[in-house]
Design goal:
Length: 162
């Protein structure tokens, strides 16, 4: 199993800059897509659907969905926020899950990736998604300043989950 990189420790100065750039970047990307001839709604929908991963990805998404009957329908997108273990804890959980599959086979716990659900599903219009991302990044950075170095976990199991 390949070693996964440990995420960098947040840097207050650069992370606050990149967090505020999220909104500006999204507005710039939207403007470029509009200048390419896509409607504002379609540009926002493509950027939200692709996680604002770039103009080319959004344009490709739009071109691949050109015959989608719901493309111009204004429908709020549904979101949920997960915390996923990374670094040594993530590696240990992945090793445990692989070992469990080898010993007892797959069960309900193997149907999704290891995570902690941080909120219920919520809906947001596509044009507002950069603000949601900005708020989540700022919240995360705030919490990281106060986070303990170690978190004790307790085992919890149900019929289909660990």
């Amino acid at each position: 199993m390949a070693e996964k990189p440990i995420p960098p420790i947040p840097n207050e100065r650069t992370d606050s800059i990149s967090s505020s750039m999220t909104i500006r970047q999204s507005k710039d990307s939207r403007r470029i897509l509009i200048d390419m001839g896509f409607s504002k709604h379609r540009a926002e929908k493509a950027l939200a659907a692709t996680g604002d991963c770039g103009i080319q990805v959004a344009a490709d998404w739009l071109l691949s969905h050109v015959f989608d009957p719901d493309l111009d329908k204004v429908t709020p997108r549904e979101y949920i926020v997960y915390a996923c273990p990374m670094g040594p804890l993530g590696n240990a959980i992945e090793d445990f899950m692989d070992s469990a599959v080898a010993h007892i086979g797959k069960n309900g716990a193997h149907k999704s990736f290891p995570h902690v659900t941080l909120c219920q599903f919520f809906k947001c219009e596509d044009g507002l998604s950069p603000y949601v991302i900005h708020a989540l990044k700022n919240s995360f950075l705030s919490l990281m300043k106060e986070a303990p170095q170690e978190i004790k976990l307790k085992r919890f199991t149900t019929q289909g989950y660990i």
